[in-house]
Amino acid sequence: MESTVNKEIPSVAVVGTGYWGKNLVRNFHQIGALKMICDKNESVLGILQAQHPGVEICYALTDILKRDDIQGVVIATPAETHFFLAREVLLADKHVYVEKPLV
Fold this sequence. Notes:
Blueprint: E1 12-15, H1 19-30, E2 34-38, H2 42-51, E3 56-58, H3 61-65, E4 72-75, H4 82-91, E5 95-98
Parallel strand pairs: 1-2, 1-4, 2-3, 4-5
């Protein structure tokens, strides 16, 4: 019996390249889903782009939101920014992945 599960891997962008963001960049790249990395730190973006060939970089969430080829956004920024960023992503009709720390 053939599976009816959609095996297409969506394209995602990771926002934030701190400690946890780097792990998410690595993981999403390993499964072939990583399309773009977004952060304000140019030097870290350069290093990550060199480590993950074919991945694009940007410095603002708006660059991601206008892209039709990116279906989801992974938010790996400080907790106090999660609501604002997730709201913007959802309003742009994209999927959002955000881990909220326990308090």
